Amino acid sequence: MASRAVGPQREGRLPPLVLPSNVAASLLPSAAATRRLQNGETVSGRTRIGGARVLYAAAPVDRHNLFVLSTRSDEVVSGDYGRYLTGLILAALIAAAVSAAAAVMLSRRITRPIGDVAAAASDLAAGRTPEPVPEPGTAELAELARSFNEMSGNLAKAREAERTVLMSASHELRTPLTAISGYAEGMQDGTIDPVTGAGVIRSESARLEGLVQDLLVLARLEQGTFETRRERVDLARIAETVRERLALRAESAGVGLSVTAAESSLATADAGRVLQVVSNLVDNAVRVTPRGGSVSIETSGGAVRVTDTGPGIPAADLPHVFERFHLRRVRGMGSPDGSGIGLAIVRELTEAMGGRVSVESREGAGATFTVTLPRA
User: Which of 14, 94, 157, 328 has its CA 20 to 30 Å from the CA of residue 182?
Assistant: First the structure.
């Protein structure tokens, strides 16, 4: 009966059996396992029962010469193998489906912002101004979209500035060219006195030459090929030199020109470029100041201030004073013989020397331009 009960079954498992000590000892694989069982310990391991390899566990029944024996086949039976294989395949299919869905969602989340940037870049390359690219939640993609939007905005501003400069420059160039052409034709057909015509042509040619020269200076500054030196500069001496240069011009315009210099007016800059900056400011001030007005040059520390009693600058235009042609284009301000880019050159030259330029003005109350340079 015991042999029949402990023989291997199809399912590979036997129900726990209560056996006498002699029967249990005959089924255990070694004498050591038998001794441990008889000493009250629980034993387990592998053995053969009825020719089949089984896993077993045996334990004594308290205060009786009986033992509980439980066995299970040591081989994976067909039913177990089938259930295991079915579960493994099902788990693999579920994992593959979840992975594929996650990959599709992730790829769409990544490729959609990149596609938006690519489409906007195509519009930008075609000369169109694209709409701002949305900034997704991912930090890297958001930074990409933000950088592109910033670049697009700066490029749009640059294009608009270039268009404005070209239109303004073409207008400024057309005026002297028209005068030169008209007076030349008048001199040719005898309707204009040659001396008068030659004087106008000479004046307009000088204005045209100055405008072209100013445009070349700005182009060199923007390209970074305009070199400046660093040397000790006496701003008081620069101011006096400018006054001597423009004294006749101011006198013919009926404008008073004065210089006030502090004892210490030293800076570290390029003397030739500082002279050009101050000359541009004073020349511009003399041209816009009406007859009977005055222009003053003051120096102290590393700063030069040029103050005039001209028409002043509207508050709305103060942030754009140093943009090319702005005041003339928007307000019609300035004198007819100015190039319209003198203040732009002042800013570019000053910043190239490590300084800064600012303006204070009220409409109808004149203006004060301050150039601050590194002190010596």
Answer: 328
CB burial string 249-275: b at 16+ within 10 A, e below? ebeebebebebebeeebbbbbbbebbb
CATH 3.30.565.10 residue ranges of the chain are 231-372
| C-alpha separations of 149 from 117, 130, 298, 365 in Å | 9, 9, 44, 41
Query: pTM higher than 0.90, yes or no?
Result: no
Token reading at 350: 């000053």
Q: What tens digit of pLDDT does each residue of 50-99 get?
A: 777 777 787 887 655 777 777 776 665 555 566 667 778 888 888 888 88
Q: Tokens 């300084």 appear where?
A: 355
DSSP labels, 326-373: HHHHHH--S-TT--S-HHHHHHHHHHHTT-EEEEEE-TTS-EEEEEE-
Is residue 322 within 8 Å of residue 331, measured between CB atoms? no
pLDDT, tens digit, 9 for 90 and up, residues 242-266:
898 888 888 988 999 999 888 778 8
Burial of 157 (0-12, 13-18, 19+ CB in 10 A): exposed
Mean pLDDT of all residues in 186-202: 84
- CA 170, 172, 178, 181 dihedral sign is negative
DSSP designation for 7: S
